[in-house]
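Researcher: We're teaching a course module on how sequence relates to structure. For the next exercise, students receive a sequence and then see the predicted structure as tokens, so they can try to spot secondary structure elements on their own. Here is the exercise chain.
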Amino acid sequence: MPIQVDHDERRRLIAGALWTLARSRGLGRASLRDVAAEAGMSLGQLQHYFPTREALIDYAVELVGAQTKARLKTALAALGPGPHPRDVLRVLLLEMFPVDEVSSQVNSARLLDALQADQVRVQLREEMLVVHTTVEDVLRGSVAAGLAGPGLDVPVEATRIVALTGLASLLEIGVYTRDQVEAVIDHHLAELFPRK
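Model: And here is the predicted structure for the students to work with:
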């Protein structure tokens, strides 16, 4: 009887091996042969799933994006119907930070490689532009609902909020703890949306 292989799980395993190597060496130095060895398979087995390095990187980057979106969707749904914009922005910011060792590896590797690999930089840029647009939409809705001041400069404030995601790098290298980062986010949002 042939062994059943979960192909989606195998793809995720390979992507995880890529991110592990990317964190220690940088994405540019992780060859398909190296990734195969890290994943515990032959190069031929890996190429059955990803015939080229570009195909593997595309998949790995898309997988991270999909996982982040799924976490965001779950966290936003937990807020219930009609959540306050402050809570929506808090969830959006906190879910962008690494939540475990794997996401920490991925976050570090993507940041490093965004500086060198066009493929990763373009994907990361597109994702962050979507985040910026989402933040602007939330802020515009807040102004319209009277929850934020009518003089709020929405594009500038959206830039400031998205810039808070840059704290992820400082969290990664131990400059700040997660509690400190959360306190900064909460302080900023409390200034933006004073409780009445």
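Model: If you want an answer key for the exercise: Residues 118-144 form the longest helix (27 residues). The two ends are 67 Å apart (CA to CA).
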